[in-house]
Amino acid sequence: MQIVLNGDSIETVDGCTVELLLQQLGISRERVAVELNADIVPKAGYEKQLLSDGDKIEIVHFVGGG
Amino acid sequence: MTQTTDKLIIGGREFTSRLMVGTGKYASFEQTALALEMSGAEIITVAVRRVNLDRSKESLLDYIDLKKYTLLPNTAGCYTADDAVRTCRLAREAGMSDFVKLEVLGDEKTLFPDNEELLKAARILVAEGFTVLPYCSDDVIVCKKLEDIGCAAVMPLGAPIGSGLGIRNPYNIRIILENVSVPVIVDAGVGSASDAAVAMELGCAGVLMNTAIACAQDPIAMAEAMKLAVIAGRLSFKAGRIPRKLYANASSPLDGLIG
Fold first, then answer.
1. Residues in B touching A65 (Cβ below 8 Å)
2. Can you give the residue range of the structural domain that contains A22?
3. Would you say residue A19 lies in a domain?
């Protein structure tokens, strides 16, 4: 299935969860925040939150800034 | 009164340093970490951005001891209340802290705040339990409204972001200081250590800066200069300066002059 991750379309497996997506991307869950279709996914929900075809995911973190 | 007993309290948290620094525009993460160390800052600002999926996973936070600093995520680059609120919610989830530097910009050229959107965002965020530190115009009316909404501090600009023009309207800052009870922190405009000292001598609770340190020829040295300037300015304010007089007043006794 296709999802839109940080603005880019990518292919991912059916039944993919937020947790699995982060693992595949090699991103540590501790220092990121995830939005699914403009709603925040709490960290405690990463393992259960299934992704669906066409979902829009944003994964953000802190960078240098004033 | 010494700097060690003169604490800054924001959102119920106590800080010794009155200098807050940004973490953008440095040449490297190593340089950022060193400058932060030399600045003595306890509160550091960060931005919230998409994780870059193509590049190195190395992150600023790998270089920073998170036990030493309170992260203050900003909403830089947001031009609407909705975008700023969304960014703050993400920041809280990523950082597990309620502190946010709220900025809602009105214009790319000046980076001046859009006060209408700022107030709207502040109302939503305070209601959601955020500790809101808003970057705002040096306008006492806006500052009073932000205080009434429940912001933990107000952060009027000294001059445009990154301009290094210093405190362009010290009288406006004084009026704000006389009319709000929350900490007043000058955010933006500082170019050199003397600018930081001026802000503190006016009676501000603190100063927030990024470019003045990060883009100095020697950022590490400038970080130390800013640390000392903020301490000196605060002590000078607390000590109470002499009145300005037009004519001289000799410091040496007139009694016992020879001849």
1. 22-24, 45-47, 49, 74, 76, 210
2. 2-60
3. yes
Query: Is A54 within a domain?
Result: yes
Please give the positions of B annotated as active site: 101
Complex ipTM over 0.90: yes
DSSP track, B190-245: --SHHHHHHHHHHT-SEEEESHHHHTSSSHHHHHHHHHHHHHHHHHHHHH-PPPP-
Contact B130/B151 with Cβ under 8 angstroms? no
Whether A37 is covered by a domain: the verdict is yes
Instruction: Inspect the interface and report whether the beta carbons of A5 and B53 lie closer than 8 Å.
Output: yes
DSSP B125: H
The sign of the torsion formed by the CA atoms of B187, B46, B105, B77 equals positive
List the strands of the sheet with B155-156, edge to edge: B99-102, B131-136, B155-156
Q: How many domains does the structure of chain A reveal? A: 1
Structure tokens at B153: 């501090």
Residue B26 tokens read as 């440095």
**Closest C-alpha to B93, from A12, A17, A33:** A33
CATH number of domain containing A47 = 3.10.20.30
Q: Which of B77, B194, B191, B182 is nearest to B140 (CA)?
A: B182
**Contact between A60 and B210 using a beta-carbon 8 Å cutoff:** no
Summarize pLDDT for B99-146 with one digit per residue, the tens. 999 999 999 999 999 999 999 999 999 999 999 999 999 999 999 999
Q: How many cross-chain Cβ pairs, A to B, lie less than 8 Å apart?
A: 101
- Is A7 within 8 Å of B50 when comparing Cβ atoms? yes
- Give B46-91 pLDDT, tens digit per residue: 999 999 887 666 788 889 998 999 999 999 999 999 999 999 999 9
Q: What is the pLDDT of residues A6-23, one digit of tens each?
A: 999 999 999 999 999 999
HSE toward the beta carbon, residue B108, CA cutoff 13 A? 0
Which pLDDT band holds residue B259 (cuts at 50, 70, 90)?
confident
Residue A8 lies in a domain: yes
Of B22, B46, B161, the CB nearest to A62: B46
